[in-house]
Every structure is written in structure tokens, then in C-alpha cells.
């Protein structure tokens, strides 16, 4: 072998990783996978419905990756348009944090059906003035529900869209808990109309939520609707999407309901029926202003009840 051939062979040998290097790479990969397994809770988005029809998700849902799409600085608060992944849906939200440098309570705002995230900012303004952070989210299907479609998913052992909407609300709670300027022990959920239904269910199944306020909302009174139904699976499903089913899980946190006497979308009698099923502590306000949704007559009781919920 001449000198030229020896040089070529030497170069080829230099390019080949040694057995030791291969083993090192394999070990490093295994360690990395193990760390990922340990740091990310397994089954953190798994759902189940028990025999009573109560939906559940893990309390430890793991950290959440938050993407900041836009930042606006105002004299008294910072407003960020954010995005975070919740199962198969990228949830957009408006995250408002008061300026001040100290940890503050916070509120998840769930709008009613057809209402975009921008429609949460009337409430966000009120919360901001009172020194609270908030996140108003863009709900799947703009908060609309299709019970027949969800029932078909249920029959096939698949996760109903309404369940995922509850999970979206829980992940919004997780977003607030990760923010360094928010007190993770003082987070409430406020929901309007359909958003109020998801708010009640989410607060009930996550004991870390401080309290829940429903505006112009009610349960479905499933128990009075299933008297002629014999199929246990069907009964479980309709109970699982009814806020009334979850009322017993809210204490010792507080349930507050605000409802206009002029509401023609969800009559106040339906709201009263849900409230009567709830256990203490609870509070109901009959409001004479407005029709469906938030109105000016709700401002004072809303502010007062949040102070009580946060222990301020």
C-alpha cells in the first residue's frame, strides 16, 4: 500500500464513529427520553366519566407552552394576545396583567356562544380596575355546542367536544398559574351563558379553582328530562354535560349566579332551579338591568363577590 492509499484509508477511519461513541449516543438519548417522561405528567389530558356521569381530568396537567402573538402596553396593565395548545385546538386568549410588580388574583373569562375573545374585555376592564389579572379565551366553535354530534362521539368511546371545551378552560387556569405575577392560589372562573356552564363544570372538577361566577347561565335539568330513558349509557352522557351534575363538587368554594329578570334566552326560572340544587356557600342575584349577558347592574355584586372569593 502506497502513502496515498494509506492517507485515504486513514481519513475513512477518522469519519467512522467508534463503538464507544455509538454507545454514548444511545445512552444519552435514553437519558433524555427518561427525563422527558419524568418531567411531563403521563396521561395529563386523559378524560373519564364515572358511573354518576361526572367528567374528570387530571389535576396535574403539566406545564403549558405559551406563545405571545402580540403585546400592548397600557398605563395600568399589559395586554398580550397569546396562543396555547389544548389537545387538538390552538386556543387564543387575551391575557391582561396589571402593572405593579406584585402577585395578584386572576380570573378566567369564558364568553357566551358566538362571542369572540374580544368580547371578554368588558369584564376584563372591571377586573383590571380592581387589581386582578384575567384571560379571556376564544372558545372552540365560539362556545356553541352540538349535543347530537357529541352523543355520537360518546357512543363510539370518543371524547365529546364539550369535554374538550372544559379542558380548554382548565388549561387557561394553567396559563394563569404559570405567570409569575399571578397568585396561583387565587384563581376564579367567570362564564357567560354557555361559557357559564363550562365554568361551573371546570371549577367543580378542579379543586384548585377558588370559586365560580355564572352570568346568565343555568344547568339543563337533566334529571327531569330522563324519566323515560332506560339506557344507562345515554343517561351518563347527558348527566356529564349538565352543570347541575357537578354542583355538589363545588363546596367549600363559592358558586355565584347573576341573572337578569328580563333574560329571554335563558329564563331566570331555569337559573333559579340550578341555584336551588347547589349547596352552600352560594349567592344568587336577580338583576333588573339588561337582558341576556352582562349588564351594568351586575357590576357591584360581581366586584363584591370576587373580593369574597379571593378573601380580600
Task: Give a written overview of the molecule.
By secondary structure, the protein is α/β, with parallel strands linked by helices. It folds into 2 domains: 3-39; 48-310, Rossmann fold (3-Layer(aba) Sandwich), CATH 3.40.50.1820. Helices cover 38% and strands 23% of the residues. The chain has helices spanning 3-15, 19-39, 121-129, 147-155, 161-178, 194-205, 222-225, 232-240, 268-277, 299-310; strands at 48-49, 55-56, 66-73, 77-86, 89-98, 104-110, 133-137, 182-192, 211-215, 254-260, 282-287. The strands form 2 sheets. Strands 3-4-5-7-6-8-9-10-11 form a 9-stranded mixed sheet, sandwiched between helices. It has a two-stranded antiparallel sheet with strand order 1-2. Strand 4 and strand 5 form a beta hairpin. The longest helix has 21 residues, at 19-39. The termini are far apart.
Could you give a short description of this structure?
The chain is α/β, with parallel strands linked by helices and 312 residues long.
Note the run of SSEs as H and E: HHEEEEEEHEHHEHEHHEHEH
In CATH terms, what is the architecture of the largest domain?
3-Layer(aba) Sandwich
CATH level 3 topology of the largest domain: Rossmann fold
Q: In this structure, how is the largest beta sheet organized?
A: 9 strands, mixed
Into which percent range does the helicity of residues fall?
A: 25-40%
In whole angstroms, the N-to-C terminal distance is 88 Å
> What do the pLDDT scores average to?
90
The overall number of domains is 2
Number of helices: 10
Shape: globular
Amino acid at each position: 500500500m502506497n502513502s496515498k492509499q494509506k492517507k485515504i484509508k486513514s481519513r475513512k477511519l477518522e469519519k467512522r464513529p467508534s463503538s464507544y461513541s455509538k454507545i454514548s449516543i444511545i445512552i444519552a438519548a435514553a437519558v433524555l427520553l427518561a427525563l422527558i417522561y419524568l418531567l411531563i405528567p403521563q396521561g395529563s389530558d386523559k378524560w373519564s366519566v364515572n358511573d354518576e356521569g361526572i367528567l374528570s381530568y387530571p389535576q396535574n396537567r403539566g406545564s403549558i407552552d405559551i406563545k405571545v402573538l402580540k403585546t400592548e402596553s397600557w398605563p395600568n396593565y399589559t395586554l398580550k394576545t397569546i396562543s396555547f395548545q389544548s389537545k387538538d385546538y390552538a386556543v387564543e386568549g387575551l391575557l391582561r396583567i396589571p402593572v405593579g410588580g406584585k402577585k395578584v388574583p386572576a380570573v378566567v373569562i369564558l364568553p357566551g356562544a358566538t362571542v369572540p375573545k374580544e368580547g371578554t374585555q368588558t369584564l376584563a376592564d372591571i377586573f383590571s380596575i380592581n387589581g386582578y389579572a384575567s384571560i379571556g379565551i376564544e372558545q372552540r366553535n365560539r362556545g356553541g355546542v352540538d349535543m347530537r354530534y357529541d352523543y355520537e362521539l360518546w357512543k363510539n368511546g370518543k371524547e365529546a367536544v364539550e369535554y374538550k371545551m372544559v379542558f380548554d378552560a382548565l388549561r387557561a387556569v394553567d396559563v394563569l398559574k404559570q405567570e409569575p405575577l399571578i397568585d396561583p392560589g387565587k384563581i376564579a372562573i367567570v362564564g357567560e351563558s354557555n361559557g357559564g356552564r363550562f365554568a361551573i363544570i371546570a371549577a367543580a372538577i378542579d379543586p384548585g379553582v377558588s370559586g365560580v361566577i355564572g352570568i346568565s347561565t343555568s344547568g339543563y335539568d337533566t334529571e327531569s328530562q330522563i324519566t323515560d330513558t332506560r339506557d344507562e349509557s345515554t343517561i351518563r352522557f347527558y348527566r356529564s354535560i349538565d352543570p347541575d351534575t357537578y354542583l355538589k363538587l363545588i363546596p367549600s368554594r363559592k358558586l355565584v349566579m347573576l341573572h337578569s329578570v328580563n333574560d329571554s334566552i335563558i329564563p331566570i326560572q331555569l337559573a333559579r332551579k340550578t341555584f336551588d340544587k347547589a349547596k352552600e356557600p352560594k349567592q344568587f342575584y336577580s338583576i333588573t338591568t339588561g337582558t341576556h349577558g352582562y349588564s351594568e347592574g351586575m357590576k357591584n355584586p360581581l366586584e363584591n363577590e370576587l373580593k369574597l372569593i379571593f378573601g380580600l
